[in-house]
Amino acid sequence: MTKVLRAFDADCYPIDVEKLAREYSAQRFPDDAVTAVRGGDIEGFEGMLKPAPRGRSGWGIFYNDTTTEGRQRFTIAHEFGHYLLHRLDFPDGIECSTEDMFGQGAEYREVERQANLFAATLLMPLDHFRERIDANSQPDWNDLAKVAQLYGVSLLACCHRWMEYTSSRSCLVTSRDGYILTSRSTDAAFRSGLYFKTKNVVPVAVPSGTLTAMKLAPGGKHSVSHRAGVWLPEACVECTVSASAYDTTYTLLHCPQRSNISLTVDAVEDMVDRFRSS
């Protein structure tokens, strides 16, 4: 990834991913470049990578422009990842629904995981990101919002990036209408038994008396401490933010650190460098 950024001279954030896709592809693959990046109301899809019409060369990246700007930028980067990594295997292009890009079930294909990894690495380079939020810190949504603004990505994308390397014992819960939809635990939290089961179980209700159970103003970011047994078997700090566009609440739960849990951070595979060396 660093080779791509150096070629583009991307020292400033947020990355102009549309310009990068056009200029880098034209430089690297002049006969098969990205020639169009366009937004539109493509109902049911987050984005698409499509070959040019018959008789013409090149590829087009299309994204749903009814979503937030940060989400659009991530989608463009995701489709650019498909272009670099998968276009030869999918000559007719790739269409990406929300479930394709962000699902966790059988439909979540390996190619989508790779494109998501590419997009996160391109927009939020890990070494640069770690300088913004230390691995041992427990950020609230205001802390994450500052970093998300720097990179021009969504608050949720920023949170997931932090969760990849942190040593914090934390859980991210997504809920709607009083029930937990999905949950993700950091490595340290999972290893100490702090997680929520959301698959193949009866829907889990949000605990009463928590911020998440309240009707909060959209966009408002709040934090409160809880005793053991409210959210988790241990005491925790609950940080919530409500997303008005999707009527969804995102909750971060931070538990006290434990000195006896050791973590090693695996190096993030450089998808572009792997592509260039193949």
Q: Approximately how much beta-strand content do the residues carry?
A: 15-25%
Low-confidence residue ranges: 261-278
Number of helical stretches of at least 4 residues: 10
The spatial strand order of the largest sheet comes to 6-5-9-8-7
Q: How many beta-strand elements?
A: 9
Broad structural category: alpha+beta
What do these coordinates show?
With 278 residues, this protein is of the alpha+beta class. The protein has helices at residues 2-8, 17-28, 69-86, 98-102, 110-123, 126-132, 141-151, 155-163, 187-191, 271-277, and strands at residues 34-40, 47-51, 59-64, 94-96, 169-176, 179-185, 221-226, 236-243, 248-255. A hairpin with a 7-residue loop joins strand 2 and strand 3.
